[in-house]
Amino acid sequence: MLKLTKVILILAYLYLWHRCNYFASRNIPQPPVTSYFLGNLDELEKNGKHMDQLRQWDTEYGKLFGIMEGSHRVLVTSDANLLHEVLVKQFPIFQSRKIHASFVINQKKDPRLNLFLAEGKTWKRLRGLITRALTVKQIKQIDPIIKEASHELLDHVRENRNDHKMNIQP
C-alpha cells in the first residue's frame, strides 16, 4: 500500500511538473510558475493589478508568452499582426475567447449580455454580426461623433468635479 501511494504521488508530481512546463517545452517564453495548482494566478491577481502584471510580463518576455491560470494554459499576445490573423482572417476557426472570472454572467438570461461579456457560440454570432456591421469606413465616419461626445463628457466632469454626486447617464 505504501509503495502504491509513493508511485501515485510521484506520477502526480510528474504530471503537474509537465503541465506547468507546457510552454517552456515548446520554446514559448513564460514567467516561472509559482504554484503547481494555481499556476501564475498568485502573481496575476496580486493587488488587483491584473493588467499591470500582464504589461510587465509583456516587457519581460516579449509580445507572445504563455501563463498558467490554475490548470488552464493561456497564450498571451500583444502582436497586432497575430491578433488580426486570429480575430479577422481565421475568425471562423475560433469559437470563443477567455473571459476574466469577474465578468462572467448568465449567457441566456442576463439582459447585460453583449460582445464583451458573451462566450461560446453566442460570442461567435455577435462577433460575426458586429464585424460585418463595422467596416473601417463606418468607423472612420463615426470617429468624430465619438470624439465630440467624449469631449462633452470630459467637460461635464471638469465642471462638476467638486460636486460629490454626478449624473453622467444620458
Cα-to-Cα separation, first versus last residue: 69 Å
Based on DSSP secondary structure assignment, what is the total number of beta strands?
2
Helix content: 40-55%
Oligomer: single chain
Instruction: Average the pLDDT over all residues and give the rounded result.
Output: 81
Major sheet: order of its strands? 1-2
Spans of at least 5 consecutive residues with low confidence: none
Q: What is the molecular shape? A: elongated
Number of helices: 6
Q: Which sheet architecture does the biggest sheet show? A: 2 strands, antiparallel
Summarize the helices and strands and which ones pair or pack.
Elements: H1 2-20, H2 41-44, H3 50-61, E1 64-69, E2 72-77, H4 80-89, H5 120-133, H6 136-159
Antiparallel strand pairs: 1-2
Pfam families: p450
Cofactor: heme
Family: Belongs to the cytochrome P450 family.
Q: What this model shows, in words?
A:
By secondary structure, the chain is mainly alpha-helical. It has a domain at 1-78. 49% of the residues lie in helices and 7% in strands. A two-stranded antiparallel ribbon has the order 1-2. The longest helix has 24 residues, at 136-159. The radius of gyration is 22 Å and the shape is elongated. It starts with a helix and ends in an 11-residue tail after the last helix.
